[in-house]
Amino acid sequence: MSNKLVLLTGGNGFVGAHVCRELLTNGYRVRAVVRSQDKADQVKKSHQEWSQQFEGFSIIPDMTKPGAYDEAVQGVDYVMHVASPFAFPIKDNEKDMLIPAKEGTLNILRAATTQSSVKRVVITSSCAAMFDLSKGIRPGYTYTEKDWNPATWDDAAKSDISIYVYCASKKIAEQAAWQFIKENNVSFDIATMCLPMIYGPILHHINSLNELNESNSQIWNIINGENKEFPPTGVPAFVDVRDAAVGHVSALTVPQASNARYVLSAGSFRFEQAAAIAQKRHPQVHILQGDTSPLDCYTVDGSKSRNDLLRRDYITFEQCVSDTADQLFKIAKN
In the predicted model, is pLDDT for residue 60 greater than 90? Predict the structure, then answer.
């Protein structure tokens, strides 16, 4: 069990709440960065059992402001940067998405350079930073840590396709981190976590199912018995949020994660499979059924993370959807 102090951004979100819980259960002390006092109160409420391990909260409304993290990072051993802009619809590509993604990441790295105590910074990236959207679902292709989204700042700045801009922002932010490490003499190293679609039970506070995170909203809309047809499975690769959290926390200390890029992916899926799993689990709900055969599409290789970080098999799609459906139907009932 560790007693080290971790600065965590985004701890009130879907992934961040699980990362926070994983840190706390492994004995880490946590200083959480949130945008408001209400968010801080929500984080404390979600983790009441470990209240003594919280080393306070830093309220930072604008994480792109120069020096935003300078006070928050003082004396910490590790930094876990999970927070990321996700603003749809996008009104201004650069102002709403590209600049916040890049500057939010660079700001926390700049702050980390002021503290010799910082040993490693783990950054949540995305498989969006890897995918080449122009290639579509690329049957037969396998994405790995070596792949990079070819989108450029200029192309994203003038694009009218929101998902293209979002994916470009993830690539730009992650590459900015690697460039920062290359160009600056720092006392710490970094690890980046590239995640595909993330599903699983929620830990963060919500008032109703209308406040679900984007990915679990997709699952709920498919299994609640109201859908008339299946949407296309836009990103046919997934990881359970609990595995994502384990991977993040493991990456703080394992030697292999020093200046390493990781893909956390448990395999491929399609929405029709989620419906079939939920129907089997909850036969009282009439859920639309469809073709559950595997999609002919790319795969995402998560073996490096499985071997270095999880050191066990990934949670299966069936277990992920079953646990998620159980929780969502319980919330709906209550």
Answer: no
Mean pLDDT of 46-50: 82
Q: What is the DSSP string of 200-217?
A: S---S--SSGGG--HHHH
Tally the residues of the chain.
334
Encoded tokens for 291: 């073709």
The DSSP secondary-structure symbol of 107 reads H
Q: Which residues contact 120 (CB under 8 A, 6 or more apart)?
A: 78, 79, 188, 189, 190, 191, 251, 252, 253, 257, 258
Query: What's the confidence (pLDDT) of residue 55?
Result: 84
One DSSP character per residue, 48-59 reads: GGGGGGEEEEEE
Q: What is the pLDDT of residues 162-219, one digit of tens each?
A: 999 999 999 999 999 999 999 999 999 999 999 999 999 999 888 889 889 999 999 9
Rounded mean pLDDT, 13-23:
95
User: Structural domain boundaries of the chain?
Assistant: 200-237+266-298+308-334
The answer, yes or no, to whether the previous bond of 89 is cis (omega within 30 of 0) is yes
The β-bridge relationship of strands 237-240 and 267-268 is antiparallel
Does the pTM of the predicted model rise above 0.90? yes
Q: Which helix (H) or strand (E) holds 1?
A: none
Question: Is residue 137 within 8 Å of 295, Cβ to Cβ?
Answer: yes
What whole-number distance in Å separates Cα of residue 322 and Cα of residue 328? 10
Q: What is the pLDDT of residue 334?
A: 85
Can you tell me the distance from the alpha carbon of 311 to that of 304, in angstroms, rounded to the nearest whole number? 10
Q: Could you give the CA distance from residue 110 to residue 120 in angstroms, rounded to a whole number?
A: 13
Contact (CB, 8 A) for 307 and 146: no
Q: Which residue has the tokens 């350079």?
A: 113
Angle at 169 between CA 163 and CA 174, to 5 degrees: 135
Share of the chain above pLDDT 90, in %: 81
- pLDDT(85) > 70: no
Give the DSSP H or E segment for 222: helix 214-223
Any residues with CB less than 8 A from the CB of 90 and at least 6 apart, and which? 96, 97, 162, 165, 166
CB 312 within 8 A of CB 246: no
